[in-house]
Structures are given as C-alpha cells and as structure tokens.
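Input chain follows. Return structure tokens only.
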Amino acid sequence: MHNKIKKVRLKGNESFNFREGWIRKGVRCISKYPMLFSRDDVMEQLGVGSKMVKSIKYWLLATNICVERYTNSGRSRELELTEDYGQIINRYDPYLDDIFTLFTLHYQIVKNDALCITWNLFFNEYDGVDFTKEDMVSVCGALLNKRLDEGSTFSESLFSDDCASVLRMYLNSSEVEDPEESLQCPLSSLGLLAKSTRSKNSYIKTAPAKDQLDKLAVLYVIVSNLPEGKQSIRINELVTSENNIGRVFNLNRVKVNEYLDQLRVAGYLTINRTAGLDMIYLNEAMTPASVLTKYYEETQVR
C-alpha cells in the first residue's frame, strides 16, 4: 500500500538524463566543496550550464549516490556520499565502468518514488506491450492519479516530458534515430527497452542479456528488499512485488528462477520448491552494502 502523494516532483532532471562522466564529475566536486550547489561558481566548477547543474544535482540524489544534509542550523545545505552506497561506488567503480554498477544505479532510480515517480510507475506498474509514448503517458498518468492525495494534481505536460526521458534513458544507442540524442545515458546499455518490430514508434520492455546482468546484481536487489532481520522470501514476491527483481529488471518467472538457481549453485541461498512453498532462504546474513563490496572485491581479484 502506497502513502498518498501530496506533491508530485516532475522534470527534476530538467529533461537531461545523466551522461557519461556526470556522476563522477559531481562526486569529485562535492568531495572538494560539499556546498557546491550553493556556490556562485557552480557552473564553472562543473563546466556546464545552469539547467545541467540542476540536472547533475538531481541525479546525484535520485541515484542515492549522495544525500542532502542541512547545516548551519538548517540555513545551508550540503551534499555528501551515502555511506551504504555512494561511498562504496566511489571507492570501487568511480567512473561507472562496470555494468554491474549501472544495474544498481537503475535500481536506485526505480525505487525512488519521491524523485523519480515516472520511472517507479513505468517499471513497477506499467505492463504495456508494443506501446507508444502516448500509451505510456495515458496509462502511467492514470496510475499516478491513483496515488495522489485528495486534492493533489500534477502537470500533464511535465509528466509527458518525464515519460519521454524514461524512453530516451533506456533505448539503446543503435536504435536512436535523432542525432541530437547521441549523447546518451549510460543506462541505455542495460538492454531494458527496445523499439518494437511490429509497429512504428512503439517500444517493448526487454530482459537484459544473461552475460550483462550479473547474479550478484540480482542478489543485491533481493537483499535490499528484505525487511531487517528477515532472510527468506517467496519466489512469487521476487517476480511480482514492486522494486524487486522481476519488476526492476523485466524478468519473468522463468528468468527469475534461472538467476535463483545460479545463486543457489554459488552457495548464496537455498531454494525450497516442495509442497508449494516456493521460498528462498539466504545461507548467511547479508546487507546490500556487503553484497556490493563482495562483488567488487571478487571482480578485482579476477
């Protein structure tokens, strides 16, 4: 059950999806100047225009790389790396070179319904097949209306802009026809969206290639969704529950079970499919941060 939304945050990205190097540049600058976005020379520090400055700040927060803190008795605001995510990414993959990191960034965006409600709705609730942008705007707009508190409204034009941003963000560069869209978001490499072959201007959600989505990215999302102290979950929840692996990565039940079998063979979990239980049990206590660290440390050893 969702909490009712009183104020909808739309177009926080200023219609710019983050580009290669933006996250790294933002992290590097706030490490030097925590109050970077309050500085008069922020455009010079980041080397971009005013709208892109707002967009970089938005994506640092939307991806959970950074959190905003109030200082000076609430009169000032500074950004700092989140301990359980941003600091780990900055330590092991500061340039976001590993596609594993990009899949975890994608998860952070999808679950962030405060800043990224359109992304949240698209992956968690929208089941469109061979859909156009107009289909997406119509259905996701209706879904958003259901989440609104009584008397709350949202701008349909801004919502449409956000829907366009979602499609641009994930569509692979080889399928982009507009040369002005050549500066793509790194998440376009994840394989989560493609142009439909059935009709023009239509899209389909797609599952990532097996050699792209690592089993530990799947484990990271599973562990992130477990309540504190709990080490088991029904497989059906993994497939259908919002912000879990089925929804976040466009995985059907067959593909979810394939990843669970990989994790079982690797010793991370036990699967019980007897007597209709269909449960998984972690073999040891884990946190999202420990899964991230394990992946990066094992990768560096290879």
